[in-house]
Design a protein that fits this description.
Largest sheet of chain A: 8 strands, mixed
Distance between the termini of chain A: 34 Å
Radius of gyration of chain A: 21 Å
Number of helices of chain A: 12
CATH architecture of the largest domain in chain A: 3-Layer(aba) Sandwich
Strand order of the largest sheet of chain A: 3-2-1-4-5-6-7-8
Helix content of chain A: 40-55%
Oligomer: homodimer
């Protein structure tokens, strides 16, 4: 991002708004344009300092953009990128922040106007909250962003996207789209299923006894159900495999409890503790 | 707790130490005696201001106590209360902080020396951390403590225990031991199984992508495995029932995902969100 260049952010909520704030804080000579459908929300983003300019016109919004970051819901990203690409100037690079990558990257692997590149991104940062009011310039600091180029991806576009995330504080790793989807199915999508189903199963009397343990374990169940429906649909096969493998483990733990096999129970508890301790608090 | 009275805390870790700190802050005229096996840990508790006096002698420690709070691991509470009761003065009341109640309350429903009462307690507060270094005078503020008297429990002992928890900031509710165990199996023990098994299933490459979602959902997996083995053993049947019901729900969600039944998936996600939202952040 050279001084004087322009970043357009499509969808200025928690993820897009935080990216905008981080650019404005760390790269003050880069112009940030916020693009959305809802003028009230755009005004809020402007007021909160997430962007320099706002527009509801995709055409005007991306006309001068060197980098476009598409932060719309995962099920719409392919269509949005296709539409935005028509308005971009030659040399523009488009990336996204979607939680799945195979469907998106495959859907955009050809057919974009010549001179326009797409490189998939997934910042491993977020919240059960949504909306620009929760945006935070430090959201990406020391967080991992997965970038998923494919063979056809131009080297310069790949570098531009990786550099962008690094410049706003993130650690970047590259994965193939399929590798990404398998890994996040386990580390992000399965936890969401597990947490939501857990939270769905309690009654009011039990809820009165909820302490920090239940609250932590179910925190992500407060996230937007429609958004997660899309994520599950896009990564269906990997998520199904993860649920199956999880249920097998849960059943083994259950058998161990039923038969008083403390050795097996302890193996799960200790491995779980080791993995969790490895991440810190 | 009248001015000049004495509380003895057996096991001065996170739970016992926080109770001691809260008494010293809120009831400065009550003396707090910390009892334990390990002199180093007792000295740490004294230095941190969790207790007024320390001793490794159970006999000396409880000799003057009006209230004894047994904060030792759940599998040992029955034996510890029996042993401590022999050294208590007539009129002394003993309570505990164990995570299960039926086994403990049944085990202590008779055979205590006359004039010594036991009333079960379970403060719904805690942490994945253990040790007095994490103790906090405000741990019980606005937290729920379940007190589990039975028909044989003397009314005055029940009132003394309830008043004690209220005086250190907690909300107190009464449940029958069996009701308590059923409720906490769902709201505390099942989440621990779910979280530990989830955490046990990831590999290092996946862990690199872990964000706040995984961290929240698995936080309690960092707790002490041996302590939790005891809790599961003491509440085995209720925990088994909860795992079964959870696995049924998880399987229904899985079927819905496989058959693209968004209506069913949405029902789980929305109920989960409602329950979680009801508790706040």
């Amino acid at each position: 991002m050279k001084p004087g260049s322009t970043v357009a952010i499509v969808g200025v909520g928690l993820i897009g708004g935080s990216a905008g704030m981080a650019v404005r804080e760390r790269l003050p000579k880069v112009r940030v344009i916020g693009i959305g459908r809802n003028r009230n929300r755009l005004n809020k983003a402007l007021k909160l300092g997430a962007v320099d300019q706002i527009t509801t016109s995709w055409e005007q919004g991306v006309a001068d953009a060197d980098l476009v970051i598409v932060c719309t819901p995962v099920g719409q990203i392919v269509n949005h990128v296709r539409k935005l690409a028509e308005f971009c100037k030659p040399g523009a690079v488009i990336t996204d922040a979607g939680s799945t990558k195979q469907t998106i990257v495959r859907g955009l692997s050809k057919g974009l106007p010549s001179g326009i590149s797409f490189v998939g991104s997934h910042p491993m940062a977020g919240s059960d909250k949504s909306g620009v009011q929760f945006a935070d310039a430090s959201l990406y600091e020391d967080r991992t962003v997965v970038v998923t180029p494919i063979a056809a991806t131009s080297d310069s576009a790949r570098k531009i996207v990786k550099r962008f995330w690094k410049r706003i504080g993130a650690k970047v790793i590259e994965l193939k789209p399929a590798e990404h989807d398998r890994a996040v199915a386990m580390i992000s999508h399965l936890p969401h299923v597990v947490s939501s189903v857990l939270s769905s199963g309690v009654n009011d009397d039990q809820l009165k006894l909820a302490s920090t343990g239940w609250k932590d374990t179910t925190r992500i169940a407060a996230a937007d159900p429609d958004l997660w429906l899309q994520i599950f649909a896009e990564n269906k096969n990997d998520v199904l495999r993860c649920i199956d493998s999880y249920m097998k483990k849960l059943d083994k733990f259950r058998q161990a409890l039923e038969t008083d096999n403390q050795r097996i129970m302890l193996r799960y508890l200790e491995t779980g503790k080791q993995n969790r301790d490895a991440l810190g608090s």
